[in-house]
């Protein structure tokens, strides 16, 4: 790497330039440190998979978990929530119709 103060080639292991004594800034390291989102996105990937599993097997809990950890975008969360509300409402209506109609008792 090249010292940005004296433009001399120095070893990348140095923290300070041996020629001018200026502090050597490791560009690659600082870029990694300014992106903590990258670690979060890896975490989200696993979390997304776990949320989908929950949504399949324990839908209400999956829905709660999804809003708590937010692995999806807001739009996706709303679509899943609305799908859950509509299906549960339909199920509820079907249950009411089924119990109120005495057609299958005979
Ligand atoms: Zn230097």
Name the features.
2 domains, binds zinc ion, 106 residues, mainly alpha, single chain
Number of alpha- plus pi-helical segments: 4
Bound molecules: zinc ion
Structural class estimated from helices and strands: mainly alpha
- Overall 3D geometry? rod-shaped
- Please report which band the strand proportion falls in: under 5%, 5-15%, 15-25%, 25-35%, 35-45% or over 45%: under 5%
Q: How many β-strand runs?
A: 0
Largest sheet: none
User: H/E order of the elements?
Assistant: HHHH
| Span of the ends, CA to CA | 89 Å
Low-confidence stretches: 29-35
The helix content, as a percent range, equals 55-70%
When the domains are counted, the total is 2
Q: Over all CA atoms, what is the radius of gyration?
A: 29 Å
List the helices and strands and how they pair.
Layout: H1 27-33, H2 37-57, H3 59-69, H4 74-100
Bound molecules: zinc ion.
Task: Summarize the structure in words.
By secondary structure, this protein is an all-alpha fold. Helix 2 (37-57) runs antiparallel to helix 3 and helix 3 packs antiparallel against helix 4. It has four helices and no strands. It has helices spanning 27-33, 37-57, 59-69, 74-100. The longest helix has 27 residues, at 74-100. It is rod-shaped, with a radius of gyration of 29 Å. The protein folds into two domains: 1-34, no CATH class; 35-104, no CATH class. The termini are far apart. The chain binds zinc ion.
């Amino acid at each position: 790497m090249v010292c940005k103060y004296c433009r001399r080639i120095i070893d990348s292991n140095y923290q300070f330039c041996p020629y001018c004594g200026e502090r050597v800034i490791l560009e690659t390291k600082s870029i990694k440190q300014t992106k903590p989102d990258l670690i979060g996105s890896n975490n989200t990937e696993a979390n997304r998979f776990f949320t989908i599993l929950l949504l399949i097997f324990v839908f209400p809990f999956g829905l709660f978990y999804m809003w708590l950890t937010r692995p999806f975008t807001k739009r996706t969360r709303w679509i899943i929530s609305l799908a859950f509300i509509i299906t549960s409402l339909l199920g509820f209506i079907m249950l009411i119709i089924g119990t109120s109609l005495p057609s299958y008792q005979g």
